[in-house]
Amino acid sequence: MATQAQTASTSPRSASKRIRQGGFFSQTLPFWLLLPMLLVIAAIQFYPGFYSIWLSFQERQGAVWNFVGLRNFERIFGSAAFRESIGHTAVFLVGYVVVTMAASLVIALLLNRKLKLSGVYISLIFIPWVIADVIAGLVFGLLVVPDYGLLSPILSNPALFPPNGLSIPSDPAPRPWISGFPFPPAPAMYYLILATAWRALPFVTLLILAALKTVPHEIIESARIDGASSFQALRFITLPLILPTLVVALFNLILGGMNGIGLVFTLTRGGPGTATEVLSFLLYTIGFGRLEFGRAAALSVFIAIINLTLIILTLRVSRTEERTA
Amino acid sequence: MFDQRPVSARRITPSLAAFAALSLLMAACAPAAPAAPAAPAATEAPAAPAATEAPAAPAAEVKDFITWYQYDEKNEDPKSDERVGNEYLRKTIPLFNEAFKDKWRWINQPQPFDKMATSLVAAVQAGGEVPDLMQAGDSAIIPFIKNGTVQDLTDWVKAQPWFADLDASAVAACTGPDGKIYCVPVAMTPQIVFAWKDYFPDGYPKTPEEFKKVAEELKAKNVAAITFFGSTAFDGEGTTRFTNTIIKSFGGTFDDGQGNMKLDTPENVAAIEFLREIIAAGYVHPRTWDGTTTPFVEEEPMKTAEAASFPTGIFGYRYVNPLKAPSGKEYNKGNEEDMLDAITAGDVFIAPFFAPEGKKPGCGTGVSVFVIPNGAKNPEAAKDYINWIMTKEQNPDWVLGPGGGFPALRSMLPEIEARAPVAKAFYEQAAAAVAASECRPWYGSLERRDEAKKIIQSTVYKLIKEDPTADISATLKAAEEEYNKGN
Amino acid sequence: MQARLPSPQDYATRRRLRPWLTNGAMIAIVALLMLPIALTLSTSFKREQDVLRRPPVLLPCDGPDGQFRLSQCRFDIEGYERVIAPRPDVSSLLGFRLTGRMFSTYVPNTLLYALASSGLVFVMSGLAGYAFSRYRFRGRRALMVAILAITGIPLLTNLLALYQMAVDLRKAGIPGYDERMFIIAVYIGFQLPFSVWIVKGFFDTIPRELEEAAFIDGCTPIGALWRIVVPLAMPGLLAAFLLCFVNVWNEFIAGYLLITKRELRTVMFGMYDFLSQNIINYQVVAAACVLIAAPVVILFLLTRRTFFQAMTEGAVKG
Fold first, then answer.
1. How far B132 CA lies from chain C's nearest CA (Å)?
2. Selection from C177, C21, B282 nearest residue A164 by Cα
3. B357: Cα within 13 Å, side-chain hemisphere
4. Which of A19, A297, B408, C261 is deepest in the core (most CB within 10 A)?
5. What is the pLDDT of residues B216-253, one digit of tens each?
6. Picking from A17-26, C181-190, C262-271, which range would have the lowest pLDDT averaged per residue?
């Protein structure tokens, strides 16, 4: 693939030129440099990708795999559990993306106002990002343990949450507005969204902040002097300028949200009932809870297609052309 | 901050060095770790530390005997949830190693209880590390047989002297559709009701109507009449407990006897209507469903006497402690003896569940069994171990400890009561409760039990908690179709 | 807010007030975000009697009369002791041994996996990043886009296949095969693409003239890479190392599913497993959370500049 060094370099005395003068090893140097990476990625990323597709057409009977055609896909797409979890995933993703993006934007705008302490703030804000999702799930779980959790006096207060207070571990969702679609969601879903957003917020804040730094101050200042309110300046100048970053952040969030499992695993395990059973957790349940690998592989192919679409969209938006130049 | 582009490597290096030093220190503090950080190539990790510590015994002769229990003998925490089983193993492993000192060395590998069966199927399929023996529940046996996970023990079991003494129903739980025996039953764990005497001075109600009457009186005292495993935690574990008890008590089942799920029956609908009624009336403790983030909180109201009764497995006596009686009397040894003491003192009694007029109380059975997986390296060790556990010296301790129920060996009960006089009242009441009930395994003819228990518990949860106005019959029908589609 | 020209006084007042308001808002936000951590810390230092109180108390500092008094505080390290479970042991370096599985098994395992995979990512991303930054070869751009695309592929969808691969490898009976190698390879495979991008970005900022000077002095390309470029790109390489370390430390699902031997499992499995033995011991769970999160949090705080730079570098630029 990358065996030949080419001459598309800017400086005539560049390394590329030297390569052409050297022996076989030097000429193929880039290939040798890339080889370890290529091997690992082929083994851990590409091969399993194709293996998953193969698995999705198989079913294990005893010790052997049998080809079953599209049966796995039929059974997955035909199951009520799948339809329900699509709804839960949609509600989760929308809530999680909106909460994270809004909070991050506000924090980034505040931090962008040259504060003496912004270094301290951002370091502290960033701590949740370093905390593992499994631990975040446990931490948030401990807070809402009925009776003993430190948030339980607030949650169980009937004045705040009538009529009898609120129990995140068990209170069901209100009657859905559209039959079959889990909205408005159960309290546990709100809580799961909050916990997930808590972990994702630092990274998105950092992205937006970095983009804000590239917005020239003079444009804002002159707009303000021309009579634009600070909201108008934000709406018509800043936001359009950082839009590509916002879109990249958006896709990143959706990707992370679709595929994150550690938090669901330790916080709600899909419950109460099936209120927080998102696609990633369903995949785990079918694949590793019930060991139905064929069906799980079919589901993972479905999720992988969504992922790939998101990735391609991200690449389009993030002006890859410039980055690879 | 982002303006300062080049970060000096020097600034990071000291921190990194400090971190590395810390890591090394931590690793040094833990010599029990099988030299992992230093030598990634050194395999056979679990055996390694024991092997090096072992004295100059005839090393070639002594082989490892590997077990999977849900208990961890290395967890010496006196307040761990599994302290009873942990303590049992800690005490017993040296005894076994002494008894077989030239032959076997017992190494236990603890497993999370809700994952053990799946892990074993996966390990056998995957050619992973397989134990020589695992403690399992009877509901895992058919999946084990289907997946070729466990060994056929028919000939061996039938040749053992203790075979004739085994309870027939326990042997049936180990018997596959082909008539072969795939496991060895050790203890039986039927479902019963623990209840506070002060709240039920006239005994536990016999019928739903009686229950509602007592519950109304208790409600006036601000006490919930009942708490149970109502959450969907552990992939629907509740199906095997209270859900099964109430459905069976109303004369219902989960299957049609042919391997299909059958939920939409008049009996099941009646049971769920009754549940809705008592929940709406406020007779059920709100903790009942709270096990989502922290499982087993439904036990709490029983411990503090905020709930008057708690239907659960007989093994529950090990976990429901410390106790505080309605009178204020405390049982706070913090171990399994609290419940036994409370029963002996008459504060707690054991009863069968109630059932509508003309029906017998339903009761789920559970059997604690040993299986020997295919691919076990030393099945002979497992057989020696089982024979050892079946002795009069060992069996009572096992049944009282990890088993937590009745012995499968019928002649052992007096032996156990002699060993633990405090358990006498407990066994008498439990035996009476079981005799008054009709005990059957929850799964009937269903084969995909993990899937079934999740579907059933989610459906019941939906009908009684999420949407108490949903059409019961239609919802049950949809659930059974979801399962049967996979047949 | 209306669009009007602010009077000079208005403007001046706002200018003076604004930093205060902004700082106030930021402090409130930071406090809110730190709340779960603070509450967990407080739980972890409580005694069991204070954890199991209804209603719960924020700090176990109230006297019998219910009044808050600092002198009444009953902080305890019981939770921590139960996680670490130190036992006296004269043969050990410090006179005691940590018998809790968390520190005797899972932490050393995870350190091994994290250090090994970060080290290899360090080397491989250095080589690949250099090739991408310095050479123009056929397929370069396509390859880079492919690598960038791979950074988005989550572990989740590959897990089933990786699990089956581990099964196949195990059954093939390859001599010397070890679950540890496999899990390290998996971690590298998932950390490498992003690292390559970070490192390439750092190489791009190093002027070529430096290497060319080295070539003129008679250095081979490898020599130039080793002596000139690597030291200059060290921040980027360290960033890749650190990110990988933190990600592997925090990784749960692959370590849980792909490692079958319990003695080889990772610290996040340990956290998860911890629950099955300590469901109702909240202070112990909290202490375990603190102990396991602390190393990476401290590591991050010490090296935060590198982190920030790497992440903006890797994800924003362009």
1. 14
2. B282
3. 2
4. A297
5. 999 999 999 999 999 998 889 999 999 999 999 999 99
6. A17-26
What ipTM is given for this predicted complex?
Answer: 0.87
Q: Residue B14 — pLDDT band, cuts 50, 70, 90? A: low
Q: B-chain residues within 8 Å CB-CB of A78?
A: 485
Question: C254 and C184, same structural domain?
Answer: yes
Among all residues of chain B, which has the CA nearest to that of C88? B29
What gap in Å lies between CA C71 and CA B82, rounded to an integer?
36
Which stretches does DSSP call E strand in A34-89?
A: 58-61, 64-67
Q: Give C137: exposed, middle or buried? Use CB within 10 Å, 0-12, 13-18, 19+.
A: buried
Which residue of B45, B70, B294 is in closest CB contact with C279? B294
Look at residue B51 in the predicted model and tell me its pLDDT. 41
pTM over 0.90: no
> Binning pLDDT at 50, 70 and 90, where does residue A6 land?
very low
Confirm if B281 and B216 have CB atoms less than 8 A apart: yes
C-alpha–C-alpha distance, residues A103 and A93, integer Å: 15
Residue from C152, C318, C317, C128 nearest C233 by CA: C128
Angle separating helix axes C107-134 and B9-28, nearest 10 degrees: 150
Residues C63-75 pLDDT 10s: 777 777 777 788 8
What angle (nearest 5°) sits at the alpha carbon of residue B329, between those of residues B327 and B335? Answer: 135
Residues A21-60, buried b or exposed e (16+ Cβ, 10 A)?
Answer: eeeeebebbbbebbbbbbebbebbbbbbbebbeebbbbbe
A275 or A163, which is more confident: A275
β-pair type (B133-137, B63-68): parallel
> Has residue B401 got a pLDDT over 90?
no
CATH of A73-324 among 1.10.3720.10, 2.40.40.20, 3.40.50.1260, 3.30.390.10:
1.10.3720.10
- The reported pLDDT for the residue numbered C92 is 66
Among partner residues A40, A147, A245, which is closest to C124 by beta-carbon distance? A40
Query: CA–CA separation, A279 vs A258, rounded Å?
Result: 7
pLDDT of residue B21: 52
Residue at token pair 């590198």: C306
Show residues of chain C in contact with B1, CB under 8 Å: 305, 308
- C-alpha to C-alpha distance for B257 and B240, rounded to whole angstroms: 17
Segment B281-300 mean pLDDT: 88
Q: Are B76 and C295 within 8 A, CB to CB?
A: no
Q: How far is CA C12 from the centre of its chain?
A: 44
Task: Please identify which residue in the block is written with the tokens 């092997």.
Answer: B51
> Which residue range(s) make up the domain with C202?
101-315
Q: What Rg do the C-alpha atoms of chain B give, in angstroms? A: 25
CA angle (B180, B183, B184) in 5-degree steps: 120
Rounded to a whole number of angstroms, the distance between the first and last alpha carbons of chain B is 61
The H or E element that residue B195 is part of is strand B191-196
Instruction: Give the whole-angstrom CA distance, residue B264 versus residue B269.
Output: 7
Q: What is the largest CA-CA distance in chain C?
A: 83
Q: Is the pLDDT of residue B111 over 80?
A: yes
**Do C316 and A209 touch, CB atoms closer than 8 A?**
no
One domain, residues C139 and C211:
yes
Q: Does B165 have pLDDT greater than 50?
A: yes
In chain C, the residue whose alpha carbon lies closest to the alpha carbon of A19 is C221
What CATH number does residue C108 fall under? 1.10.3720.10
Q: Per-residue pLDDT averaged across A314-325, rounded?
A: 61
Whether the CB-CB separation of A17 and A9 falls below 8 Å is answered with yes
**Pick from A81, A275, A289: CB nearest B235:** A289
Bond prior to A163 in cis (omega within 30° of 0): yes
